[in-house]
Specification:
The chain has one helix and three strands, in the order E-E-E-H. The protein is of the alpha+beta class and 75 residues long. The protein has one domain. A hairpin with a 5-residue loop joins strand 1 and strand 2. The two termini are 40 Å apart. The mean pLDDT is 77. It binds zinc ion.
Length: 75
């Protein structure tokens, strides 16, 4: 379940909210629905790991193909 960070445009309160389909999104302080959605902690971590180099960029021979180095044609 995603947790989103919001910043209230009305009172400036920043808060995290666990959002379900039936969640009413409003500021817990002033109950305004004028909110700026921030990047969630989870989404930031996932996009960071997605930028890692692809595994097949490593030299062939480390892929574990049982036919031996080069057999996977990725050299
Ligand atoms: Zn507010």
């Amino acid at each position: 379940m995603p947790i989103y960070e919001y910043a209230c445009q009305s009172c400036g309160n920043a808060f995290e909210l666990l959002v379900r389909s039936d969640t009413r999104i409003e500021c817990p302080s002033c109950h305004s629905s004028q909110l700026d959605k921030q990047l969630s902690v989870f989404a930031t971590a996932e996009s960071a790991s997605a930028r890692q180099p692809a595994p097949f960029a490593s030299p062939c021979g480390s892929c574990g193909n049982p036919d031996g180095p080069g057999a996977c044609q990725l050299q």
